[in-house]
Amino acid sequence: MHDHRKLGRELELFDTDPLIGAGLPYWLPDGAELRHTLEEYIRGAERRAGYRHVYSPVLGKRELYERSGHWAHYSDDMFPPMDLGEGQQLVLRPSLCPHHALIYRSRAHSYRELPLRMAELGGMYRAELSGVLGGLTRVRSIQLNDAHIFCTVEQVAAEARGALDMILRAYGALGVRAARFRLSLPGPGGKYVAAPELWRRSTALLTEVLEASGLPYEAAEGEAAFYGPKIDVQVEDAAGREFTLSTVQVDFHQPERFDLHYIGEDGAKHRPVMVHRSIIGSVERAVAHLIEQHGGAFPAWLAPKQLAVLPVSDAELPHAEALAARCAELGLRAEVSDRGRGSLGARIRAARLVPYQVVIGAAEAADGLVALRLRDGRRLAPMPAGDALSRITALTAAHSTALWDEEAGGR
Ligand SMILES: [Zn+2]
């Protein structure tokens, strides 16, 4: 595998500037395109699974994190508070959970609304030491793919299983391989919320989900969140080090701390459970992993540039530009690479990571045909441009990792 820091710069996906600060990368246009596509995929999958999206601010009062327990259990990883005078302190948030708990609490809820699935791709901050910062894997500003499901105890197992299914589907679309499934439990030491009965119940629920899934898993002590146990999906980086990409957690603690409730069928108040889940974790870490896993040759639906349109000579340039415009209409990302960028051979080599190379010579231009070269080396016979684009559109819309669907009538 590749080092995402080196490749990310070569492919012009992201970079850093010492004047902005270490651990605060910015995204260049191709990186932003990739990130936007990834985020839209996640939002679409969440919408289809019944999630509703919210936006919440990246700051909150210090009291909010005292209430949530972050201040007592997690403040070493938080930035120092900003003092506004008059006894007010604001904190850059270390997680989205407290905001979502308050959004839930702001309205009355009936049992009929549960499970209530609230999602946000939102910013959070971690005061990493400068010595460990680098690339997209250790950053101080994090965009988290987060969601909280407020549900009854009876609904927890089905919701956790649904989240696990979403994670596995996303891995299929992204071409990501899970190295290990881990049941993360508390370990020795005092950073966990003390509520033995709640830990026992939530651990039993997650164990049940893992057993029913048939996935092989291992239990690991000392890896739980401070408020509850979790299922972690582990992947390996380029150096063979394991890290957590996705997670599903069961939390009885924060609903207590924020006094959340719903009105049950009996007309009385009941306490919901919070299931925290993330499909791809932080966008930064996920993109770093995708760069390393694919060496920049991303699945076609995710690639910042999907088609490189290559006119053989200047005479075909208008045809190439018309084709690129047609791609844009269809929502495909195409770039014309004309003779100003060198010989046809040089342009083909420069576009080696682009899924589809479209060579347009005099014969193709005259007949309205295109000759496709796929990134994997396959060369297809000339075909009508409309056919080629509709086949590519079908594959990318399905989030397929295949470059070409022979079954659909390959010539
Ligand atoms: Zn959470």
Automatic annotation (TrEMBL):
Keyword Glycosyltransferase: no
Catalytic activities: tRNA(Thr) + L-threonine + ATP = L-threonyl-tRNA(Thr) + AMP + diphosphate + H(+)
EC number: 6.1.1.3
Top-level class of the enzyme under EC nomenclature: ligase
Keywords tagged on the record: Aminoacyl-tRNA synthetase, ATP-binding, Cytoplasm, Ligase, Metal-binding, Nucleotide-binding, Protein biosynthesis, Zinc
Aminoacyl-transfer RNA synthetases class-II family profile domain location: 29-299
One GO MF term attached to the UniProt entry: threonine-tRNA ligase activity
Record InterPro entries: aa-tRNA-synt_IIb, aa-tRNA-synth_II, aa-tRNA-synth_II/BPL/LPL, Anticodon-bd, Anticodon-bd_dom_sf, Thr-tRNA-ligase_IIa, ThrRS_core
Keyword Nucleotide-binding: yes
PROSITE patterns: AA_TRNA_LIGASE_II (PS50862)
Coiled-coil residues: none
Similarity annotation: Belongs to the class-II aminoacyl-tRNA synthetase family.
Protein name as annotated: Threonine--tRNA ligase
Organism listed in the record: Streptomyces drozdowiczii
